Amino acid sequence: MAKNLDHIWKALSDATRREILDLLRDGPRQTTEIVDEFPQLSRFGVMKHLDVLREVGLVNTRSEGRRRINSLNVNPIRQIMERWISKYEAYWTNALLRVKDAAEDDANEDDTDKEASSKAKRA
Predict the structure, then answer these.
(1) How far, in Å, CA of 38 to CA of 29, rounded?
(2) 31 φ, ψ to 5°?
(3) pLDDT digit string, tens, across residues 61-110
(4) Does residue 33 have a pLDDT over 80?
(5) What sign has the CA pseudo-torsion 81, 84, 89, 92?
């Protein structure tokens, strides 16, 4: 299963491709609109990034006459989440709860120390 996701990880490793996916998260866009968002890149460069995203299934493209409309396909990202992120979710939740409990214990000890110090000063 992990081997099947390697090509998705590789596609996501590029910052420009992640920016393209961020654009598509807000809704479908024409290829020209995507190209316009990256003035530092040539049209050919942006098209290559879109091709990579299309090949791994992260972007779907349909033609409407001469226009090409690109949209985000979240299924591969969902597969990554299910395979990798959800496995560690319980671990991190428990770790964060332990940190919270430790911080609250420290705060309670500080309050107890302050009360004891205040009583000693009054006596």
Answers:
(1) 14
(2) -55, -40
(3) 999 999 999 999 999 988 888 877 777 777 777 777 888 888 888 878 76
(4) yes
(5) negative
Contacts of 49 by beta carbon, 8 Å cutoff, 6+ apart: 14, 16, 17, 20, 41
Domain ranges (residues) in the chain:
2-73, 75-123
The pLDDT of residue 49 is 98
Class of domain 2-73: mainly alpha
Residue 2 confidence (pLDDT) above 60: no
DSSP string, 14-80: SHHHHHHHHHHHT--EEHHHHHHT-TTS-HHHHHHHHHHHHHTTSEEEEEETTEEEEEE--HHHHHH
pLDDT of residue 108: 81
